[in-house]
Amino acid sequence: MSPKTSESAGQGGGSGHGGVLTTGRVSVAALAVLALIFVFENTRSTRIRLLIPEVTMPLWMALLGTGLIGGLCGAYLVRRRS
Known about the structure:
By secondary structure, the chain is of the alpha+beta class. The chain has three helices and two strands. It has one domain. The protein has a two-stranded antiparallel ribbon. The mean pLDDT is 80.
């Protein structure tokens, strides 16, 4: 037997990814839901200064855009580590 076969046989022959509902996934999902609730509760328009120009947009758009940029940066850093 190869080492890979003997290791996976000792783990019950599963794929090695764990269950669908792990603690980490549940906590990330809960945080995402809370963030979306926060974003969509703040719907009034606000003035935002983007370096030089000043724009007026709904606050939820600015919060959602900031969250997406942060998520992309986090995904990039996680992908780069592995």
